[in-house]
Amino acid sequence: MASAGTPTPAPTEGAPENQRVQSATGALVELSPTPGGLALVSPYHTHRAGDPLDLVALAQQVQKADEFIRANATNKLTVIAEQIQHLQEQARKILEDAHRDADLHHIACNIVKKPGNIYYLYRRESGQQYFSIISPKEWGTSCPHDFLGAYKLQHDLSWTPFEDIEKQDAKIGMMDNLLGQPMALPPCTDPSLQGLTH
């Protein structure tokens, strides 16, 4: 029988407070009267929930972790969504360029088109479009037909509009420089891979 001044230990299992904490924090560690096969002197002191503020802090920590995990996943998904949008835009541009190139290859032309040359697109009064090697500047005021645009035939048989030729040539030149450099492998420090770079 407990004395008047000694508080009676209350069982923690099934207590409403523990149920509230368990629902807020997810789950508490299971209680065992003999952890590791050793009997505890006072299971109450080792199993008790302790300061209620500690339980509140635990619940807040779990809630904060959930919020951080959700925010982190949202940020990563946002990056992926932006990448998908960029790839979709690139795919749309590739398809548009492919249709344009196919149409230009079917334009009437009385000469054999050679990659690297610029061809000038005109339209007759009848509506027929045709390629010529003569520019509007060379025609001067005697240009017989409507000028529609100029295109450079690339070595991959794609067409580059006249206004993009300088930028496209710079890109191709940069790629040629990269391809012209010798490919050097970094020195190998892994014993299992030694000899592969020599």
Descriptive tags:
alpha+beta; 5 helices; 11% strand; DUF2452
Task: Walk me through this protein's architecture.
With 198 residues, this protein is α+β, with helices and mostly antiparallel strands. It is 45% helix and 11% strand. The protein is built from 5 helices and 4 strands; from the N terminus they run αααββαββα. A 4-stranded antiparallel β-sheet has the order 2-1-3-4, covered by helices on one side. The longest helix is centred in the middle third of the chain and has 54 residues, at 52-105. The radius of gyration is 39 Å and the shape is elongated. The protein starts with 15 loop residues before the first helix and ends in an 18-residue tail after the last helix.
